[in-house]
Write a structure and sequence with these properties.
The protein is mostly helical and 165 residues long. The protein has six helices and no strands. It has one domain: NusB-like (N-utilizing Substance Protein B Homolog, Chain A, Orthogonal Bundle).
Amino acid sequence: MNNAETETADDDARVERYRRERQFARCSALQYLYQADVQDDWGNIARNLLLLKAQIRELEPPLDAASFERAWDFTERLVRGVVGERARLDERISASATNWTLARMSVIDRNILRLATYELYCGAEVPELTALDEGVELAKVFGHADSSRFVNGVLDRLLRDRHTP
């Protein structure tokens, strides 16, 4: 392999590692949000994050130690952001979820929407379409059969509303 091929391979590996770290972080954040919602425990963030981190570590995450720590930093930013902005996020979601109340949504869909909406409106480091796509992917993995279509529809409306003057 020549230098250009080696650099390209290294870049591809970095991009793939970054993508896996971000996906892992979003899944971890979703676990936190789901648990907080089910238990109606939106306080105790620091303690609950430590407990979740220990539980996830026990399950032997598919990341090396350095990747795990980078992913966990992003998990914490997402969780703290969503919890801190939850009331505003819920207002936006409610306004865009035609004929749906938050209480009527499944717990998993509601928290996927909170997470993706946070990334859409507050996550400057994440492109809008990436936030939308990642929300839909989470819905495909963790939701019911129609979750991805539902989440896509709500996030698409949120994105359109965001660009409407």
